[in-house]
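Lecture notes, part 5. Sequence design as translation. It can be helpful to think of inverse folding as translation between two languages: the language of shapes and the language of residues. The source text, in C-alpha cells, appears below.
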C-alpha cells in the first residue's frame, strides 16, 4: 500500500541546495512562507504540511516516528536525496527524530527553539477552545474570534488558531487542523523524540529565542549529548516564534549557519 504524501509549498529552483522546513504544532507551511521566500535566493526551499495539519492527510497516529516516516516518504516521492532540514517546535522534534533515524539523508540539521526533552502539556486550553467552537453557528471569522475570546484571551494566540479555520465552498467553516487527534496525542507530542544514547553527529544548529523559555540553560547538556556538533545561536529579541518575532535576524542567522 502506498504511503500518503504530504502537501508542500516550494520556493526556489532546482540546482540550489535543498532546504526543508517543518512547522510547529497547530501551524502549517503557510506560517513559514515569508522566511522561505527570503531564503530562496540561496536554497531550493520546500515547506510541507505535517500530518494532521494544513492540506496534508489525517491520521490518529501523531507520534514522532510516524512524522519522521512521513518526511522520508515525502523526500523519496519528490526525488530529494540529502537535504538541509530545519524544524520549529514540534517540527524541530520531528527533525531530531529524522536525524537519528536517517542521518545519511541530511546535509545539516537546524532546530528552532525546542530541546530534546519532555515538555508540559502546552496548548491544552487552545485545543479545548477549538473543540468548543460551534462551527455551524458562526457567520464569519469575527464571530469565531469573539467565541474563542473567553477561552483564549491573548489576541495573538487567537489569530494563530484562526489561521486553521477555513471556509468551505458552501460558506460553512471547518478546522483545517485535526485538533481532535492532536489533542489525544498531546502527551506523546510533549515527550522527548529521542531516547538516551541516540545521536546525530552531523552539522547541527539550535536557534534559541532569547525571550523564550522553551530552551533553558540546563537543556544544553542534553542537546550536546544527542548532537555533539551542535552550535547554539541565540536571537535575543525573539520569543518562541522567531519566524514571526525576529524574521530578519532568523534569516540572517540561517544564512550564516547553513552550509552551501
Amino acid at each position: 500500500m502506498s504511503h500518503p504524501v504530504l502537501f508542500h509549498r516550494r520556493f526556489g529552483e532546482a540546482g540550489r541546495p535543498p532546504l526543508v522546513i517543518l512547522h510547529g504544532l497547530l501551524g502549517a507551511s503557510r506560517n513559514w512562507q515569508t522566511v522561505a521566500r527570503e531564503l530562496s535566493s540561496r536554497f531550493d526551499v520546500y515547506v510541507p504540511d505535517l500530518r494532521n495539519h494544513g492540506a496534508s492527510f489525517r491520521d490518529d497516529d501523531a507520534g514522532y516516528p510516524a512524522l519522521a516516516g512521513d518526511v522520508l516518504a515525502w523526500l523519496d516521492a519528490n526525488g530529494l536525496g540529502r537535504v538541509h532540514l530545519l524544524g520549529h517546535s514540534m517540527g524541530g522534534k520531528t527533525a531530531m527524530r529524522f536525524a537519528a533515524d536517517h542521518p545519511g539523508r541530511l546535509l545539516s540539521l537546524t532546530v528552532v527553539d525546542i530541546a530534546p526533552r519532555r515538555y508540559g502539556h502546552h496548548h491544552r486550553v487552545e485545543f479545548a477552545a477549538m473543540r468548543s467552537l460551534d462551527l455551524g453557528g458562526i457567520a464569519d471569522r469575527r464571530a469565531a474570534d469573539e467565541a474563542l475570546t473567553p477561552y483564549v484571551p491573548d489576541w495573538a494566540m487567537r489569530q494563530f488558531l484562526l489561521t486553521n479555520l477555513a471556509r468551505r465552498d458552501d460558506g460553512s467553516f471547518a478546522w483545517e487542523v485535526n485538533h481532535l487527534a492532536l489533542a489525544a496525542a498531546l502527551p506523546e507530542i510533549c515527550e522527548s523524540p529521542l531516547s538516551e544514547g541516540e545521536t546525530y553527529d552531523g552539522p547541527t544548529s539550535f536557534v534559541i529565542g532569547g525571550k523564550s523559555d522553551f530552551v533553558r540553560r540546563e537543556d544544553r547538556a542534553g542537546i550536546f549529548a544527542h548532537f555533539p556538533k551542535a552550535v547554539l545561536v541565540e536571537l535575543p529579541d525573539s520569543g518562541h516564534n522567531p519566524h514571526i518575532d525576529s524574521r530578519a535576524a532568523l534569516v540572517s542567522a540561517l544564512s550564516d549557519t547553513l552550509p552551501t
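The translated text above is only one of many valid answers, since several sequences can fold into similar shapes. The chain has a mean pLDDT of 95.
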